[in-house]
Amino acid sequence: MSGNTFGKLFTVTTFGESHGPALGAIVDGCPPGLELSEADLQHDLDRRRPGSSRHTTQRKEPDQVRILSGVFEGVTTGCPIGLLIENTDQRSKDYSKIKDQFRPAHADYTYHHKYGVRDYRGGGRSSARETAMRVAAGAIAKKYLAAKGIQVRGYMSQLGPLPIEFKSWEAVQNNAFFCPDPEKIAELEAFMDQLRRDQDSVGAEITVIAEGVPVGLGEPVFDRLDADLAHGLMSINAVKGVEVGAGFACVSQRGSEHRDEMTPDGFLSNHAGGVLGGISTGQSLIARLALKPTSSITTPGRSIDVHGQAIDVITKGRHDPCVGIRATPIAEAMMALTLMDHWLRHRAQNAEVSVDTPRLEQYSR
Amino acid sequence: MSGNTFGKLFTVTTFGESHGPALGAIVDGCPPGLELSEADLQHDLDRRRPGSSRHTTQRKEPDQVRILSGVFEGVTTGCPIGLLIENTDQRSKDYSKIKDQFRPAHADYTYHHKYGVRDYRGGGRSSARETAMRVAAGAIAKKYLAAKGIQVRGYMSQLGPLPIEFKSWEAVQNNAFFCPDPEKIAELEAFMDQLRRDQDSVGAEITVIAEGVPVGLGEPVFDRLDADLAHGLMSINAVKGVEVGAGFACVSQRGSEHRDEMTPDGFLSNHAGGVLGGISTGQSLIARLALKPTSSITTPGRSIDVHGQAIDVITKGRHDPCVGIRATPIAEAMMALTLMDHWLRHRAQNAEVSVDTPRLEQYSR
Amino acid sequence: MSGNTFGKLFTVTTFGESHGPALGAIVDGCPPGLELSEADLQHDLDRRRPGSSRHTTQRKEPDQVRILSGVFEGVTTGCPIGLLIENTDQRSKDYSKIKDQFRPAHADYTYHHKYGVRDYRGGGRSSARETAMRVAAGAIAKKYLAAKGIQVRGYMSQLGPLPIEFKSWEAVQNNAFFCPDPEKIAELEAFMDQLRRDQDSVGAEITVIAEGVPVGLGEPVFDRLDADLAHGLMSINAVKGVEVGAGFACVSQRGSEHRDEMTPDGFLSNHAGGVLGGISTGQSLIARLALKPTSSITTPGRSIDVHGQAIDVITKGRHDPCVGIRATPIAEAMMALTLMDHWLRHRAQNAEVSVDTPRLEQYSR
Amino acid sequence: MSGNTFGKLFTVTTFGESHGPALGAIVDGCPPGLELSEADLQHDLDRRRPGSSRHTTQRKEPDQVRILSGVFEGVTTGCPIGLLIENTDQRSKDYSKIKDQFRPAHADYTYHHKYGVRDYRGGGRSSARETAMRVAAGAIAKKYLAAKGIQVRGYMSQLGPLPIEFKSWEAVQNNAFFCPDPEKIAELEAFMDQLRRDQDSVGAEITVIAEGVPVGLGEPVFDRLDADLAHGLMSINAVKGVEVGAGFACVSQRGSEHRDEMTPDGFLSNHAGGVLGGISTGQSLIARLALKPTSSITTPGRSIDVHGQAIDVITKGRHDPCVGIRATPIAEAMMALTLMDHWLRHRAQNAEVSVDTPRLEQYSR
């Protein structure tokens, strides 16, 4: 395939450009009998929707999703699920200038040389707008997994230089940053306001966690659960790093410290982040991702045009000063899609497996 | 597939357990006409071979690879390349004790519950021994890419708490650590000796770089070059984190700092690590991976057996006190396999593309 | 995947039920720079459209296709192409009776038991209406291949008991049967009229031919060009048999008769149908497919309902008395998609191959 | 992939040339816990082995298969199964002449132009010898399916002009032709002896049947059970046609005749061949395949050499005068692999499905 499909058994194939008529996706492999309605998808779409606060792009998109197939009388039929979102706010503007420019740190330059042609309106296919369909498809996986007792949630764990401590899931839902610490929000607001005055942007770190994951998901050796998760998370726009459990901190750890010891009462720690040998342990699956600062800032930058001439670029338009702020639902979606795919893959090969050994209850975090 | 295949057009499928009769792989999709001999594969196999220094496992394996098909009169024919390495040093021992134990931080527990049965001898399929076939297959990709002007190399950038500065590629070849700084080696040796006395293990960070990568490799949106690379690197045993370019450092960077500006003379920096929008920029492709400390240490650890009873585990046997020490050739192999796959994928879809825009010469690093 | 995707590099994924809101497809892997408009797709869609003659279903569907992505300023961009056709004539009717019945020789029984739930309106996903999207996607492949000098065309070679001789391609375009013999049409018309009076249906045989195919397309050993073609053609509703070249006639042939001898002026025959060892020879690719008679007839048939009770079924509604009549454009589409996929696959692996041996000009047929 | 893998969940990847050191395969996706030994594979390998009668090639190959991984203490572990067969009888001969010749109806010409290089010894990769690995892998699928009550068997239904009636499965096992009619064997013997005197070859038709198939296997719309089966059967060397159930006979059938009516006691016929809408009905899965006459005959034939010069070719060496004679185990293997793959695929998506509707007992044939 040419890269627009994710998953092997629960497959999501997407299409759509930032300023085209619509975005769409086909979800193939969803088990039949799952109660599903557009409302189930809309919830997460609204969580990532632009314009929800002054700290995100002011583009106004209702992102109303339609289910065009695969659901009959309120339940999935086992047939492919067609999803569609019409683009409504493609503000018509004059692209004559930008069409010949390569914005620094944008995909303009690479798309131009790879394909020889590109839809330059709003970034075309490389726009973060593409992630709307990941969230819609991810919501289907989330609903299926929830029925199996698996809950996928995320939060912002760092905004630029400001680390954020986890306090509660409740807090995450009550602010535009997906910040788990209510007392930190004022500081984040102030930081973002100053950033906008500086006409600059900043990076962020998101943490995603799946609780209730059973032991046994993941296919060694190449399609390890953590390897496929890394694939999914790194495929999100602007992501430059992914880590599981202790992550890069494990470099300076010693074996006696890193190894998660076990007792009949459960694991004593979770430095593994819920994966051993590429297979889930039954503990929480924990991952973190690093998102780079938005490249579209109004501070002039040096670049070249399609003729190779030096130019100064100022990226006007409606952009997120921190793409990470809206990334939490997207990261949740990619983790849910990964788990869903591996749930089906595990079931295909191991349906007969029954082990009478006690499974360890999962470590709280 | 069930997880033992890597790549979509240049596919590597492997088999083999640590103490089985042999390891093998099938490389499918290699272009015809490539001069190839077993010697081309043996070089990298020797670089990762155990027992090459007192700091790695003392298991003695010649790791002699045989090419069983796909090569005729010294050149590849376009037919699948069968590779085989016989296991010679499967020291026969009494496994009656270990067979019922779950070693902490090992895949024992997860394999047991996923499959209901496992080859407990030396870790079976979950043993790092499996990576020998990655290296063999990667060497084929490396040779093909080299002919295209692409060179993939790696080095150790941190050992436990000791960061290592890059000094020269020459240095990397002259020590068991793949350390790029000759003056650092004595310190590493001392550290490892003390570690062994402590009966403990430690993690490491490896940096891998591909130079000479053309602009245009990578398939948005899910099969981005960096996403597939993250998949490949995270699939290596013991890897807990992967980053590209600035990686996690981008979280606290500002857009004005992170963005790589361009001039007619080239890029002015490479925080992107050679990828924009999932497509190679023509700069060096730069990735780092974090490897956890070996779980097999002789310091007793709490665990349970298959009956759920509490036990103390002491892992005897021949183990690497730092799996990272031998990981450099493996990381190179996974980067080479990823680039090779995308080279073919790009060519399939874009063979007609010809862009007269000047490609920027790559930034030195 | 779960079966709704065709192709490995030029992939077509479809969705949509007979009486749902819309049908859709995503074509991924189309090379950039191809001039493409909705008119290019509409031509073939109109050729398969129902209601074009009194010998096909009277359902009225304009089958107006929309291109939602992947095409910018008239040319493909290399990004996925989203296609959509709204269903307009889903005649609302009372399904309370049919919903509990299994129509003989229909997919009702198998869908019911596979999925436990089914969209019974007009056959849902199992309706031949699904093939509209194959035709739309196939038209993209046809246009690309045409630019390479490859022309894919088909015709009806038998209607029920009436064999049809090939006279000319011109003739094929001028009748509702895709009949290549103008003098045969009256007979076909009379046969169909009588069939309708008999309240029965009949099968048909379609022949598809690709001219201008270069030597070298096809991937041994499992993805032979003819094997993938058989996959594609057998996946069309109602197809029960596929043959290439001499087909089943080769059983009673002798080697001295079947083998296509070669001279410097070309092949002397084409019993192979354009494929040797799974790779195209450069001759015309020739395949035939057998379509069963429509199962939906008004003559009562014995069956059971979902409760296992015996029932008599009379299938009312708007059905084709011979599905084969509209099958020619669908068969062309599947051959075009197969060739397109293998064109890209061949190019990926063999771009460097240059053989100075003379290629034989293709045998006329 | 480049064509050497069959299946999506139960995948078989093969390598090996006729005169290379060995043939091999990797079977990935086999469920754990299946009792498996080399003897299970050897049985079918012996059934297809050359030299078992005077009517097949006199090449002597023990075809002793080794299991190199994936099986531990007599049961499969869920890890990839590595298979190896050493080539022992690669009679060394002078290839200087044949290396520059294209044998008519052979893959010489197509391999030469596709790859630019080829292993001309005994046909290299295009040799029927490759099918040994299909049989070995198929035996694993057969054993798994047998435990589920599915039995896959085949027989020769026509030899050249001689149709063969099915009498009994017992008969099939007692002759070199896999002939189900004991009284027909003398005629077949005489026919083959005369054929050899004529220095010619002939085609054959094989029928393959799977009994005990449950309702529900197959993934609409492209990966229909019959479409994937057609793919598998058409991928066998020399196969030119595949049909399911009534096959091409359905062209002249009427709907009232073809449709398989149902009663509470079961189906009343099986023209469908066990598949409706691409999903198994629970009846016997019935397919037929046509194999062309061997191209390697000693009667001179016109051809060209690599320089494009006209030549006369006489194919000496050890060849089957009728490749169909040894094709039955191969066809069984491909049907078993197809069913096995779809068993796992069905289970992945539909594990929760439970339908209380009575399943119809299968029609005897």
Automatic annotation (TrEMBL), chains A, B, C, D:
**Do you know which Gene3D superfamilies this protein is assigned to?**
Chorismate synthase AroC
GO MF terms here are:
chorismate synthase activity; FMN binding
InterPro entries found in the cross-reference section: Chorismate_synth (IPR000453), Chorismate_synth_AroC_sf (IPR035904), Chorismate_synthase_CS (IPR020541)
Q: What is its EC number?
A: 4.2.3.5
Q: Where does FMN bind?
A: R125, S126, S127, N237, A238, G277, K292, P293, T294, S295, S296, R318
According to its UniProt entry, the protein's GO biological process terms are:
amino acid biosynthetic process; aromatic amino acid family biosynthetic process; chorismate biosynthetic process
Q: Does the keyword NADP apply?
A: yes
Keywords, alphabetical: Amino-acid biosynthesis, Aromatic amino acid biosynthesis, FAD, Flavoprotein, FMN, Lyase, NADP
Annotated segments matching region Disordered: 42-63
The answer to whether keyword Flavoprotein applies is: yes
Q: Which domain of life is it from?
A: Bacteria
The protein's annotated catalytic reaction(s) are:
5-O-(1-carboxyvinyl)-3-phosphoshikimate = chorismate + phosphate
Q: In which pathway does it act?
A: Metabolic intermediate biosynthesis; chorismate biosynthesis; chorismate from D-erythrose 4-phosphate and phosphoenolpyruvate: step 7/7
The record's comment on cofactor binding reads: Reduced FMN (FMNH(2)).
Q: Which cofactor does it need?
A: FMNH2
User: What is the annotated role of this protein in its UniProt record?
Assistant: This reaction introduces a second double bond into the aromatic ring system.
PANTHER family listed in its UniProt record: CHORISMATE SYNTHASE
Could you give the subunit structure recorded for this chain? Homotetramer.
NCBIfam families given for it?
aroC (TIGR00033), PRK05382.1 (NF003793)
Protein name according to UniProt: Chorismate synthase
Q: Which organism is it from?
A: Vreelandella zhuhanensis
